[in-house]
Amino acid sequence: MTEGAPRTCAHCGLPVPAERVVDGADKLFCCSGCEAVYRVIGEAGLSRYYDLRAADLERVLEPASPSAATFSEFDDPEFLRLHASDAGGGKAVDLYLEGVHCAACVWLVEKLPDLVAGVRSVRLDFGRSVASIEWDPKVTKLSAVARTLDRFGYVPHPYRSATRRSLAKGEERSMLIRMGVAGAAAGNTMLMAVALYAGAEDDPTMAKFLRWMSLIVAVPAVAWAGQTFFRGALAGLRTRTLHMDVPVSVALITATSASVYSTVTGAGSVYFDSLSMLVFLLLVARWLQFRALRASADASELLFSLAPSRARVVDDAGAEREVAVDTLVAGQRVAIRAGESVPVDGVVHAGESRLDNALLTGESAPVEVREGDQVHAGALNVAARIVVRVTAAGENTRVGKLLAAVRAAQQRRAPIVQLADRIAVYFVAAVLALAALSAGLWWSHGWSVVVERFVSVLVVTCPCALGLATPLAVAHALGAAARHGIFVKGADTIEALAGISGVVFDKTGTLTEGRVVLTRFEGPPELRQEIAAIEAHSSHPYARAVVESMPTSLVADDVRDRAGGGVDGSVAGHRVSIGTLRFLRELGVQVSEAWERRAAHAAATEGSPVLVARDGSVCGLMTFGDPLRRESCAAVRALEGRGLSVSILSGDHPGVVARVAKELGVQDALGGVPPERKLELVDGWTSAGRNLAMVGDGVNDAAALAAARVGIAVRGGAEACLASADVFLTRPGVEPVVHLIDGARRTLRVVYRGLAISLVYNLIGASLALAGLIDPLAAAVLMPISSLTVVLSSMLSRPFRSRSRRDATQLVHAPEREVVACP
Amino acid sequence: MSVIYVLLPVAVLMAMAFVALFVWATRTGQFDDVSTPPLRVLFDEEGANGAEKPEPATDGKDRT
Question: Which residues pair with A354 in a beta bridge?
C-alpha cells in the first residue's frame, strides 16, 4: 500500500481518519462504534457477514453507531399492549432498525434466534428496515432482544401500533387480490375472445358457448374487482366532484349489462374481454399510486418514534435509573453522559461540559455549559457527564414543540390534485356528450344499433391509458431517482418539484462541508508542532481539525482542557496556551494590540480566530472555518440558470452566513435564525404563494421543511429530519438538488407525453366509434395498443440519467482551493 | 373441435383454483414483502428460522 493512501474501515468501508491509524494494526476502524460492532460480530462467530457484504456492491456505506441504551421501556406493559400482538403462544412486534443497508444485514439480523434464546423468528423487511420479531416472553424480555440488536449496530425503535399495522396490511392485501382476480379474468376472457374473433362466431353453438363462458368468468370478476371504481364514483357524485372513477364506472356498468343482454338474447356484441382488461389495467395504476403513498406514510410515522425516549433519572442517593422520557416531571434530575443526547429541557445542576447544538441551531461549534446554564433537548453532550434538573420534558421541550409543528404543517398541506384528475372533469363531460351524440346520430337505425354505438363509444373512450400515464411515469421516475441516491417519497412531490420558483438552503452540510477546518495559521513554524501535541489531548472539534492538519511526534504533558474556552499544557520546555481572547486574558497572558487587531480582522473576514500564547505572550493565531463545498458555486449558478431563486436561511452566526452568501453570489441570506423563526418565514412565503423547496439537514429544519412546498433532507441529517422531508438525498452537496429538479421536470414532461398519447387515442377511437366502425374486436385491439404506447413512453424515458460527460468533468476539475470564488 | 366444450370449463375451473391459491397466499402474507426474499437467496445455508422457499411465481393466471 502506498504511503498516504486512505485506509478503509474494516467494518463499514469508509476511509479511516488520520488520527485513528495505528501503524502495524491488523485491522483499522473509522470510529469506536465500528470497532465495537466488529468485535461483537467476531465473538458471535458470524464473520461470514463480511463475506456476504463484499458481494453486495450496491450497499450504502455508513459507520456503525450502537447506542448502548438498556431499552428497558420495551418491557413496559403499556408499551407491549400498544405495539405487540399475540402470535402463536408468544408475542410479535415490529421494530424499525437503524443501519440496515445491505443483504448481509438481513442475514445478520435474521440470525437473532440463534443468538438470543426465546426468539422464535425474525424477518427483516429490507425495503422498510422493519424487523418482525416473534418471541416467547417467558424465556426472554424484549429489552434483551433490543440490546442484542443494538450491539450489532442496529438501533431498534418501536414501529407502529399493532392495530394500525394490521389495518394497513389488510388494505394492501385486498388491492393485490383484486388485481390478481382481474388479471386472471382478463387473461382468460381474452383467450376466449380470440377464438370468437378468429371465426368461432360462424358456428352458432360454439359462439354461444364461448360467450356464456366469457360471461361466467368476466362478470363476477369485473363486478367484484371493480368495486374500487364503483365506490369511488359514488363518493365523487355525493361530493359533487367528478373524477375518473365516474366515466369508468358508467362504462363498466353499461357495457357489462349490454354484453350480458347480448349473450342472453344471442344477438349483438359482447365486450367482456375489453372490460376485464380495463379493470385490470386501472387496478394496476391504482396499486402503483398506493405503494408510493404508503412509503411516505411509513416515513412520517417514523418521525414520532425517533424522538429521544429514554432518560437516566438520578435520585437523592445518586443512583441512576432508566425511565421513559414521557414520565419525567419538572424538578427531577437527569444524568447525561458524554456522547448522549440531552433528553429534556433543563438547567445544569452539576458538572461542566460542552454541548453540540447543531440539531437545534445549526452551529457546528460546541457551546460550553456549567452549573446554572440552560440546556435544551436534542443537544449532544460532547465532553463530560452532567446532571440536569428538568424544566420541561417530552412534548413541552423545544424539540417536542418543533416536532408537533412539523406534524401540524404536514396536515395543513393541501394535497396536489393529480393532473389527470383535473383533466377528468372535462373528460367526463366530453365522453358523456359524445355518447349522447352517437345515440342521436344513429337514432334512426333502431334501438339495438343505438345501444351498440353508445356502448362502443364508452368502451373505446375509457380512460385506461389516461389512468396509467401518471402513476407509471412517476413510479418509473422514483425508481430511477433511487438508483442515483435520491429518494423521493411521493408521487405528488414530483409535480410539486417541477413547479417551484426557488430553493432555500440551510448553510451547514449542504453548501459547506459541515465540519471545522483550519484555514489559516500565523506564527513561527515550530509552534505548529507544539500546538498539535497539546490539541491531541482534546476532543474539541477545533482540536481535531488541528491534529488532522499537523501531525506531530512531540508529546505534551500537564494538559488542561478547560471548559472556559481553551486548553494549555507543557511541551518541549514551553508553557503553551491556546484559546479565545477572553480565555488567555483570564490566564494572565499578555495580548499585544497587534495580535488583538489580527484576531478581530480574522473574525470579521475569515472565520473563528483562536490565539496561541507561548510562555505568557501571544505569538500565533489560528483561524478556523467551515469550507464551502467545491461544487456549491457552480450548482448555485446552475439553479439560477434554471430560473430558480436561491436563498440561505441558517441558524449559524450571521457573520459567517454573510461571508458564505457573498462567496456564492447569493443576495438573499439570513443568519442567526432560530428554528421557530425559520418555520414562520417559510410558512409566510408559502402562504404568499411562493412555491419553495427547502434543503436542510437537522431537526432545526424539520418544521420548516414540512412547511415548504417541497422539503429536501440531506444525507447525514437527523432521522427526524429525514422522516419529515419529501425527498432524501444520500449524496452530499448541492449538485443532487440540481439533479433532482431536472429529473422532476423531465418526469413531468413524460407525464404530459403519456396524457397526450392517451388523449389522441381516445379522440381517434371516439371518431371511429361515432362512425360506427368500432366493433368488439377493434375495441379490444385499440385499448392494449394505447396502454402499451403509454407504458413504453414511460418506461423508456430516463428522467434521472447522469449528467452529460461535460458537466461531470467540469465539477471534478474545479480549483483545489477550499474556498471557491465564482467568476 | 367439440372437445372444447369439455376442456374449456375444465380449464376455467383450474384457473379458479389458481386464483383461490393466490388469494390464500396473499391473505397469509406471502406477498407482503417481495424485496427481501431475493436477498435471502444469497444465503446458502439454513436461515435462522428455516429458509423459506421462494414464493410461487403464479399470480393466478392460467395459460392453458
Answer: A368
